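User: Here's a structure from my thesis project, written as structure tokens. My advisor, Dr. K., wants to see whether a designed sequence matches the one we expressed. Can you design one independently, without my sequence as a hint?
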């Protein structure tokens, strides 16, 4: 076992129960926008420590707009979105702290008229 793997394994193990991630991947012909929704169904605040919409075909993540500032209060919904390329799938990604077991999410792929072309549950 190499030393770097051991260091990473120990760090991830120490964070178990403290962080969680939600992600989903989708694509549709004619896509122009991806919107990611997060809903805090739990009794307390959840911090969104990182969020992104990531293109399949590489390059940098898209510039985001939206309302997902931290913390996400109990019973509240937020969203973040980006204009995307028509080529290739995209992924919604969010890192939550403390544990995001009480956060649900959905990704919508939309066309230029904001019609929903595809909807994916974030897991």
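Assistant: Designed independently from the structure alone:
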């Amino acid at each position: 076992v190499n030393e770097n793997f051991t260091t990473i394994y120990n760090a991830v193990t120490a964070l178990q129960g403290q962080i969680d991630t939600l992600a989903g991947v989708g694509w549709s012909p004619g896509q122009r926008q991806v919107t990611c929704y997060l809903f805090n169904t739990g009794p307390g605040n959840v911090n969104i420590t990182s969020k992104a919409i990531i293109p399949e075909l590489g390059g940098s993540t898209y510039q985001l707009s939206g309302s997902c500032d931290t913390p996400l209060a109990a019973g509240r919904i937020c969203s973040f979105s980006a204009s995307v390329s028509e080529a290739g799938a995209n992924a919604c990604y969010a890192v939550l702290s403390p544990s995001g077991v009480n956060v649900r999410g959905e990704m919508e792929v939309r066309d230029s008229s904001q019609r929903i072309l595809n909807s994916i549950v974030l897991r």
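When you compare it with your expressed construct, this may help: The chain is about 10% helix and 45% strand.
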